[in-house]
């Protein structure tokens, strides 16, 4: 499942939904809004159609590169408070040794290519988070 | 022809989330970007340097496919196309 949502994300429900009898490992990454230097809230914005396509591409790449059975990615957008879940990635596999690097591959690629942005709000003002770029300066 | 331009994050705050730009039939992506930049007072400085080159942190998509800087001049447009302009991504 690839989803971009305004709703709260339930990581436990996603893990249960992903599980099949063949899976011995479900490696899960949960990205959370961190209390960073007085952060009050965070606003996440997406180019939704392109982000959905890019997430699907990353899932397909991970499935090709690693001996895994499934990749589920749910990314939240909208306004989030400290402690709320931004993102859940669930990688299902027969064995952990493939599931761990596959999960890391998905989050690393996501941060490089998926058109989603964060704006941080603090008492002193607001600021867009500087993103990663694949282009040379 | 009419081309839809969508802007995100910092560029959305400058240009608005969406504009439809009317262009001559033969116009390419470079022509579109200049016209789009001129749509706001601070638009040109947001996208181009003093020599008229696209700033390195401006990312472009044409019909949801990335366009590298070197390809901007050679990218032809058609009526109904969608171009997106945004800063480097920061999700996850």
TrEMBL record, chain A:
Which InterPro entries does the record cross-reference, listed alphabetically? Answer: MoaE_sf, Mopterin_biosynth_MoaE
**Could you mention a single GO BP entry for this protein?**
Mo-molybdopterin cofactor biosynthetic process
Q: List the protein's name.
A: Molybdenum cofactor biosynthesis protein MoaE
Q: CDD domains, alphabetically?
A: MoaE
Which SUPFAM superfamilies does this chain map to?
Molybdopterin synthase subunit MoaE
List, alphabetically, the Pfam families matched: MoaE
Q: Could you name the domain of life of the organism this protein comes from?
A: Archaea
UniProtKB/TrEMBL annotation, chain B:
Against CDD domains, the record matches this protein to: Ubl_MoaD_like
Quote the InterPro entries the UniProt record gives.
Beta-grasp_dom_sf, MoaD_arc-typ, Mopterin_synth/thiamin_S_b, Sulfur_Carrier/Prot_Modifier, ThiS/MoaD-like
For this entry, the protein name equals: MoaD/ThiS family protein
Q: Which domain of life is it from?
A: Archaea
* Species assigned in the record: Methanofollis aquaemaris
Q: Pfam families recorded for this chain?
A: ThiS
């Amino acid at each position: 499942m690839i989803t971009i949502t305004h709703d709260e994300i339930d990581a436990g429900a996603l893990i249960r939904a992903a599980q099949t009898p063949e899976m011995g490992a479900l490696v899960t990454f949960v990205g959370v809004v961190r209390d960073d230097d007085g952060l009050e809230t965070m606003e996440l914005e997406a180019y939704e159609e392109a982000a959905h396509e890019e997430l699907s591409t990353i899932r397909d790449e991970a499935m090709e590169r690693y001996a895994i059975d499934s990749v589920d990615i749910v990314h939240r957008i909208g306004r989030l408070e400290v402690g709320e879940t931004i993102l859940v990635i669930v990688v299902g596999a027969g064995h952990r040794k493939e599931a761990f690097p596959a999960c890391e591959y998905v989050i690393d690629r996501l941060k490089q290519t998926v058109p989603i942005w964060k704006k941080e709000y603090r008492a002193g003002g607001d600021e867009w988070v500087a993103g990663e770029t694949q282009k040379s300066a | 022809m009419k081309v839809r331009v969508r802007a995100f994050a910092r560029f959305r705050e400058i240009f608005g989330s969406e504009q439809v730009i009317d262009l001559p039939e033969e116009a390419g992506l470079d022509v579109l970007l200049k016209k789009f930049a001129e749509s706001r007072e601070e638009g040109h400085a947001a996208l181009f340097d003093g020599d008229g080159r696209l700033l390195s942190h401006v990312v472009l998509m044409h019909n949801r496919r990335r366009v590298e800087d070197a390809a901007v001049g050679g990218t032809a447009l058609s009526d109904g196309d969608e171009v997106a302009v945004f800063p480097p991504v920061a999700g996850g």
